């Protein structure tokens, strides 16, 4: 029994050990399985993270590659643009050089080649026009029966006509880029300008002055007209056309000096050295300005005056683009000398039916004309103002021609101011306290006008007309100071009226201003403003191509 018990005990121990070993093996296998599974999950997570990282790295690399490619493309584009710009500028420069060279070499040939019109002498242009002279002359003088036989329209034949584009080119001389850059005319350009002044009595230089400078001066001119420090020039159709002498200072002096620096050789060829400044003024035409009659500024009274009188040239600088109906300058070329002494009635009538040049010009253009030339300021039927200022130069040491207003600020009239003085900026200084407007303020002037004509203050035109001359208090007021409305050879224009004074000095006013007790209250510029008449009426707005002035 003991042996059996030991045997059972041993078997129990052996069984227990086997169970324990089996359980240990099972446990170890489970631990290994769990570890393997955990490692598999970990490895999977690591693989996933590595894939994500590789993908991110790949995206970053792609982004960097694209950025590098973009920067490279930008560099190539910049290089290409710079190269293209250089090539374009070089091509433009070469083309302009070729054009300039071609311009100098162009001649009017019978073979039909190109023609530089500005280099054709005016005498040649006149001969070209004379090709049709016989036809035109016979057309003018043919009798009514021939007109009827040929089916002509009498009204059409007698209608006055003007040329714009073609006429513009015939009287123009352009400066080339090299002249503009150096601001110095070549000899042939100066000769062409002088030829047109001598033979045609006028020359146009298109787009001469800087547009920004013209705009600034247009505003200054308008401000000066709205608050004048002097009297208006005595011109015809003056309700919406204002001639006001300017001061030789600031931008006014600089644009005048610039013009004279460039054009001095032309004036020396035509007027000689030491030409005097005889006028310096603005002449702005506002909407509603009427056509002026054709006229010269000065008229030789005797044939000898054609050579004895000092030549006087006026130069208008246009501060905005001038359209065909914005009061452009009209002129009949070649009427500045012997045309004054044609007295046969039929010939005079024929001349009146002659076409004329209408200068619709771009901003900054300057037109220079002989004061004896028949011309006019045309009407302004547009909604835009035509801001302009002008100067006039006269020969030295010759008798002063009669006719022009010599519109120059009173402070300069006692001085001799030459072209050379202006270029050197050696001009007299003006003390504004001594100007013609300084004696009285507007309140005193308005009080004086009310005492004379107060009962008419409700009607600005009648109030103004009465103040100009109280004897007109019960008369129908006139829109102009003169009744003369002759259509030819009048001496009033954009800048002129008759004057018998040898030096061109004259009273600023031409009406009965002495009837008001305060002398400087009788200036038309002041009275129009106080009466709120014409451009001074409430709500009146002056506009140009870029907006309101």
Describe this structure in words.
- By secondary structure, this protein is an alpha+beta fold.
- It is built from 16 helices and twelve strands.
- Strands 2-8-5-10-4-3 form a six-stranded antiparallel sheet, covered by helices on one side.
- α8 packs across α10 and α15 packs antiparallel against α16.
- The chain starts with a helix and ends with a strand.
- Mean pLDDT is about 80; it is low at about 100-115 and about 475-515.
Q: Radius of gyration in whole Å, from Cα?
A: 44 Å
Helix content: 40-55%
Element pattern in H and E:
HHHHHEHHHEHEHEHEEHEEEEHHHHEE
What integer is the average pLDDT?
Answer: 79
- Global structural class: alpha+beta
Specify the overall morphology.
elongated
β-strand number = 12
Q: Which features characterize this protein?
A:
alpha+beta; six-stranded antiparallel β-sheet; 12 strands; elongated; 16 helices; four-stranded mixed β-sheet; 549 residues
Task: Walk me through the topology.
Blueprint: H1 2-105, H2 122-130, H3 133-141, H4 144-150, H5 154-158, E1 162-163, H6 165-170, H7 177-182, H8 187-199, E2 202-205, H9 211-226, E3 241-245, H10 250-271, E4 276-285, H11 305-308, E5 312-318, E6 329-331, H12 345-352, E7 356-359, E8 366-370, E9 375-377, E10 388-394, H13 419-423, H14 442-453, H15 460-468, H16 524-531, E11 543-544, E12 547-548
Parallel strand pairs: 1-7
Antiparallel strand pairs: 2-8, 3-4, 4-10, 5-8, 5-10, 6-7, 6-9, 11-12
């Amino acid at each position: 029994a003991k042996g059996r018990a030991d045997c059972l005990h041993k078997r129990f121990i052996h069984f227990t050990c086997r169970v324990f070993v089996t359980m240990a093996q099972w446990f170890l296998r489970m631990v290994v399985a769990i570890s393997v599974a955990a490692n598999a999950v970990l490895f999977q997570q690591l693989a996933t993270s590595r894939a994500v990282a590789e993908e991110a790295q790949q995206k970053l690399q792609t982004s960097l590659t694209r950025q590098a490619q973009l920067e490279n493309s930008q560099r190539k584009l910049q290089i290409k643009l710079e190269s293209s710009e250089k090539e374009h500028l070089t091509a433009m420069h070469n083309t302009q050089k070729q054009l300039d060279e071609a311009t100098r070499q162009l001649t009017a040939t019978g073979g039909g080649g190109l023609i530089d019109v500005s280099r054709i002498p005016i005498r040649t242009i006149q001969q070209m026009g004379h090709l049709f002279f016989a036809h035109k002359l016979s057309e003018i003088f043919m009798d009514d029966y021939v007109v009827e036989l040929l089916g002509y329209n009498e009204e059409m034949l007698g209608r006055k006509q003007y040329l714009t584009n073609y006429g513009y080119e015939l009287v123009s001389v352009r400066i080339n880029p090299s002249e503009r850059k150096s601001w110095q005319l070549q000899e042939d350009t100066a000769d062409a300008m002088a030829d047109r002044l001598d033979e045609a009595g006028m020359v146009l230089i298109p787009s001469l002055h800087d547009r920004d400078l013209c705009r600034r001066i247009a505003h200054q001119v308008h401000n000066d007209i709205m608050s004048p420090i002097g009297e208006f020039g005595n011109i015809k159709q003056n309700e919406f056309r204002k001639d006001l002498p300017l001061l030789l200072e600031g931008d006014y002096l600089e644009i005048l000096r610039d013009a004279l620096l460039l054009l001095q050789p032309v004036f020396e060829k035509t007027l000689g050295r030491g030409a005097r400044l005889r006028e310096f003024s603005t002449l702005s035409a506002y909407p509603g300005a009427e056509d002026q009659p054709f006229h010269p500024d000065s008229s030789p009274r005797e044939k000898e005056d054609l050579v004895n009188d000092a030549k006087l040239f006026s130069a208008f600088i246009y501060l905005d683009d001038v359209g065909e109906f914005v009061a452009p300058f009209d002129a009949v070329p070649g009427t500045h000398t012997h045309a004054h002494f044609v007295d046969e009635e039929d010939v005079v009538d024929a001349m009146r039916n002659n076409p004329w040049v209408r200068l619709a010009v771009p901003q900054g253009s300057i037109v220079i004309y002989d004061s004896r030339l028949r011309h006019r300021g045309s009407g302004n039927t547009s909604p835009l103002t035509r801001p302009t200022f002008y100067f006039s130069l006269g020969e030295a040491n010759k008798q002063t021609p009669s006719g022009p207003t010599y519109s120059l600020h009173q402070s300069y009239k006692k001085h001799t101011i030459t072209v050379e003085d202006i270029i050197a900026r050696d001009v007299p200084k003006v003390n504004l306290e001594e100007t013609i407007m300084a004696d009285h303020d507007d309140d005193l002037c308005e009080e004086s006008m009310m005492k004379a004509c107060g009962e008419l203050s409700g009607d600005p035109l009648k109030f103004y007309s009465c103040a100009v001359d109280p004897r007109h208090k019960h008369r129908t007021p006139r829109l102009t100071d003169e009744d003369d409305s002759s259509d030819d050879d009048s001496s009033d224009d954009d800048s002129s009226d008759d004057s018998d004074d040898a030096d061109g000095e004259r009273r600023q006013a031409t009406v009965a201003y002495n009837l008001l007790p305060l002398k400087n209250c009788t200036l038309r510029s002041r009275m129009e403003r106080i009466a709120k008449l014409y451009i001074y009426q409430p709500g009146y707005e002056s506009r140009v191509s870029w907006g309101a002035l």
